[in-house]
Design the sequence.
């Protein structure tokens, strides 16, 4: 599966990939959303497919979230507004990222997969556990490794008692 | 509970008792007097296309198999084995010639007939397989692709039941050149910790738009959508009315500002989408005439079909149905609907437009969910001290009943009250 990096390209290590993913998790848990945006490429996408169609294409299937970079930025603008009622006061989240694997190398781009558990807490509410798998596409942009695509695939058969995905999963 | 009024409808005051959202006895009565006598949405014919196609789902609290039989007719079976009751079909969707209960191996064909019984010879002679086919709800009927069931054998026919709602369903169907809409793959299936009737109210209450969805209005504005910014005197960016349609059904009917895949372009779709939307609009005008095309394309409507179906023909078309799991908890299922012959690029615009507002990851619906859960949390322990919610907007007013008034909400509640007070059959 793994393709050879072109001559001269820097070979990114698994450690560097993990560091990026862990940094992203920390920024999201701390609601440092502008800093999180800086981890994304200028054409980044963020997707959460419907639970019954995890491998579908958002052009032909209804998703829960299918953002291009403009929508991601709009989502962040919204989440920073106190009138984003579903996330104000902000949920507390704690993300556990594990089983990180580089599944494909393509020049200076990488396909990466990882497992996640995200706990979401709100005042006087049940704990919600979002369990699933990330599919990332990472790319070197201006000498920095950035996130070109992140897909969060929730394992639950339906969203059910998880309710909304109103924060950035 | 019949001795206390739950809905107070007076000359210039309309109030709903908050116990209706909290009391388990009221929910039990609702199951019998509302859900078991009304036409309840099962699914859309496009979800099962060929003989043997099936989907399992919960409708009106019952597990059902929604399917096409050997002659490709749409059928609904109760998903319980006639032997000892196990759910026969455990897959969410698929195609099957035979459904076999794994417990003792009884199997049923696509027409619901009992086909195989292991060790059949050991039953008494009086045992007939033909007596033990999968059970069906007493009534299953459809209107323009939307399939409903009714557990009341004496119910009025669906066409008649839908009353004025048919006109508004037809407006949705008119988006398709062939008159065929289809459910697009991908189900939004989630729970809300609130009474199901709060979602009825919320689904077509435009009074909350300015305050609950200000971030969505900001999003549209930042994306370049031109609109009159609402203020405290002008609550909505465009004119719209609320309209009862009979039998508890009601709709909003609004001048569109939010864009429509069929067919009103807004900057959110991108410049490259403009020619496609114009082409769809031209087809609409050629087929329906300018006036009807404008009706389809330049208005948006949230239609509640009593008691628990929403057809929201707004930023995109969504079918949303919901069912109480407990007084303070409901299950919501939502799908996107589009014209069958839509091009892949138009379909992509439709689905993207859907997600700008609707669904558990949309830029608006999560705030609705939050509002409903806050209502439930607010009333759960206080409804005895603060028993009444106020629903009088627009009462005793001359002129239009606006979408931000509450005439259409009151229409729902009056039908609910009528059914809840009556012994089954007396109210119809």
Sequence:
């Amino acid at each position: 599966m793994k393709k050879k990096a072109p001559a001269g390209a820097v070979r990114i290590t698994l450690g560097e990939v993990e560091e990026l993913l862990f940094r992203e998790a920390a920024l999201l848990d701390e609601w440092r959303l502008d800093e999180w945006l800086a981890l994304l490429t200028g054409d980044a996408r963020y997707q959460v497919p419907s639970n019954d169609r995890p491998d579908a294409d958002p052009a032909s299937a209804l998703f829960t979230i299918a953002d291009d970079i403009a929508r991601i930025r709009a989502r962040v603008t919204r989440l920073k507004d106190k009138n984003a009622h579903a996330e104000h006061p902000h949920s507390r989240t704690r993300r556990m990222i594990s089983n990180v694997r580089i599944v494909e190398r393509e020049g200076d781009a990488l396909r990466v997969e990882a497992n996640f558990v995200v706990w979401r807490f709100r005042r006087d509410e049940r704990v919600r556990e979002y369990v699933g798998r990330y599919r990332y596409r990472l790319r070197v942009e201006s000498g920095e490794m950035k996130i070109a695509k992140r897909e969060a695939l929730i394992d639950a058969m339906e969203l059910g008692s998880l309710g909304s995905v109103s924060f950035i999963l | 509970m019949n001795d206390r009024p739950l809905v107070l409808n007076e000359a210039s005051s309309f109030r709903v008792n908050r116990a209706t959202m909290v009391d388990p006895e009221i929910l039990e009565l609702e199951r019998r007097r509302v859900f078991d006598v009304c036409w309840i949405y099962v699914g859309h014919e496009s979800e099962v296309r060929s003989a043997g196609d099936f989907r399992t789902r919960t409708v009106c609290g019952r597990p059902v198999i929604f399917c096409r039989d050997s002659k490709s007719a749409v059928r609904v079976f109760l998903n319980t084995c006639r032997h000892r009751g196990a759910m026969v079909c455990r897959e969410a969707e698929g195609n099957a010639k035979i459904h076999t209960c794994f417990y003792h191996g009884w199997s049923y064909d696509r027409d619901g007939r009992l086909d195989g019984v292991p060790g059949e010879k050991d039953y008494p002679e009086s045992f007939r397989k033909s007596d033990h086919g999968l059970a069906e709800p007493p009534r299953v009927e459809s209107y323009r692709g939307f399939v409903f069931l009714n557990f009341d054998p004496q119910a009025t026919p669906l066409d008649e039941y839908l009353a004025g709602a048919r006109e508004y369903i037809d407006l949705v169907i008119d988006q398709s050149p062939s008159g065929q809409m289809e459910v697009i793959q991908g189900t939004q299936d989630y729970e809300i910790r609130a009474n199901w009737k709060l979602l009825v109210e919320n689904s077509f209450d435009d009074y909350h738009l300015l305050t609950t969805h200000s971030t969505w209005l900001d999003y549209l504005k930042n994306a370049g959508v031109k609109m009159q910014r609402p203020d405290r005197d002008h609550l909505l960016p465009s004119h719209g009315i609320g309209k009862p349609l009979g039998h508890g059904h009601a709709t909003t009917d609004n001048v569109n500002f939010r864009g429509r895949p069929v067919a009103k372009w807004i900057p959110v779709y991108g410049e490259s989408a403009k020619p496609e939307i114009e082409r769809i609009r031209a087809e609409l005008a050629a087929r329906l005439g300018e006036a009807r095309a404008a009706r389809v394309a330049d208005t948006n409507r949230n239609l509640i079909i009593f008691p628990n179906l929403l057809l929201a023909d707004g930023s995109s078309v969504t079918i949303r149905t919901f069912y109480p799991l407990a007084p303070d908890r409901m299950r919501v299922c939502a799908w996107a609907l589009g014209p069958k012959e839509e091009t892949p690029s138009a379909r992509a615009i439709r689905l993207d437009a859907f997600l700008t507002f609707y669904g558990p990851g949309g830029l608006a619906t999560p705030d609705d969910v939050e509002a409903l859960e806050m209502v439930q949390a607010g009333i759960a322990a206080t409804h005895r001290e603060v028993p009444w919610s106020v629903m009088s907007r627009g009462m005793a007013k001359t002129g239009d009943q606006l979408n931000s008034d509450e005439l259409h909400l009151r229409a729902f509640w009056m039908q609910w009250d009528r059914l809840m007070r009556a012994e089954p059959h007396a109210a119809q």
